Amino acid sequence: MNFELDATNQKILEALVANARIPITELSKKVGLSKTPVTYRIKQMEDVGLITGYRAILSPLKLGLTNVTYIEVRVSDTRQKALEEFNAAVRKIPEVEECYMIAGGFDYQIKLRSRDMAHYRHIMAEKISTLPHISSTTSYVAMEAVVEQSWLSL
Question: Do 74 and 139 form a contact (C-beta atoms < 8 A)?
Fold first, then answer.
């Protein structure tokens, strides 16, 4: 399938990122096309995998998850099987908002959300510390969110 991310597709994406529930009629007006071509373009972006889904974005603050901690994780075994075991286990911890394998002085970086420091300590003791192949961790508590965004402009 031939696909081009032109200015109109970028406008459609910007509108969908701002509000994925925007009515097609309103979206059509925003981008200057009728409903049928806008619907076709959205379907095309879904088909090529540019749009991978739609979801509700919950407010961690409204859920009482006001504490953000970044955790550097060093593992004792970096063979593929060990990494797969760690990956599978960390995915099961609901308080882990993000986890990345890192090239550098440590192996993984975890972004963890908790209610407060007592909750964080519980998660560290009962969940993070029990992950397979952990050698050591270093934690950094965020004091303030300066920039938080889920998408950058194209």
Answer: no
Beta carbons of 152 and 14 less than 8 angstroms apart: no
Q: What is the pLDDT of residues 92-127, one digit of tens each?
A: 999 999 999 999 999 999 999 999 999 999 999 999
Q: Is 109 helix (H, G, I), strand (E, B) or coil?
A: strand
3-state SS, residue 36 = helix
Same domain, 15 and 75: no
| 69 and 135 belong to one structural domain | yes
Number of structural domains in the chain: 2
26: containing domain: 7-48
Is 102 found in the same domain as 44?
Answer: no
Axis-axis angle for helices 7-18, 35-47 (nearest 10): 80
SS3 label, residue 121: helix
Helix (H) or strand (E) holding 113, with range, is strand 108-114
Asked if 41 and 77 sit in the same domain, the reply is no
87 contact partners, CB below 8 Å, separation of at least 6:
99, 101
Do 73 and 109 lie in a common domain? yes
Is 0.70 surpassed by the pTM of this model?
yes
Contact by Cβ (8 Å): 89, 131: yes
